[in-house]
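Quick question, first post here. What does this chain look like in 3D?
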Amino acid sequence: MTIIKVKPTTNARRQMSFLDYKVDKVKPEKSLTFGIKRGSGRNHAGQLVVMHKGGGAKRKYRIVDLNMVSHLGEKAKVVSIEYDPNRTANIALIQYPDGEKSYVLAPDGLEKEQLIICDEKAPAKLGNRLKLKNIPPTTQIHNIELTPGKGGQMARSAGNFATLLGVDNGYAIVRMPSLETRKILAECYASIGVISNLDHSKVNLGKAGRKRHLGVRPTVLGKEKNPVDHPHGGGEGHSPIGMKYPKTPWGAPALGKRTRNKRKASQKLIIARRKK
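> Answer (accepted):
Ran it through. Tokens below.
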């Protein structure tokens, strides 16, 4: 995709850029969409539990099939490549021989009219989905299962991919996008290729209004708040946090403190920790 820079007609637009989306300008498949209600970061009691959320443009949610095992061995034709406002990656509308349609995550390079297949021993070609034990080493993969049958959970955002390093004793060794190396059951499924929309991270929003359209409210430093609202709060003006180490709004250590539970069951599957 091409990044287009806006003419600097105002100060707000001086650094602004946007993507020239190479997608089909079509309405989403009605049977695969539904409206979603915004919670604005609040729970059932109306209490704020996730900060900086609220507002934004209306969206329709696209139901994306992250599993594809309901049509094992059936070739599906790519009908269109579409924009999805609910995720950073593009999605592909596919149609099976019986006429059923479905949305899947679109890898970079997937084109209209192309045929893709999900099968245990499918060819390791772009867009196909197969078990890890049947994928050649050094292949770039995405939408990776962690639990057989649950559907893809890892490497699903724009430009992301993991690399299969090999298979040993029923486990596939995979280098994740975070550069963590871990074992995953070889019976799990994964899709071939790199997720589309590679230049997503290079876009400069340029002005606060575009951020609000995405449903993100202003962020305020903890030390600018009152003591009742944040451990860093209080003091005169733009003062330091006044404590030995930074904390979250709920008092837990922040900024660099490793929070992963060492007793977690999957700890034994991690060969090398991710890079900070």
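Helices lie at 208-213.
The domain at 22-200 is CATH 2.40.50.140 (OB fold (Dihydrolipoamide Acetyltransferase, E2P)).
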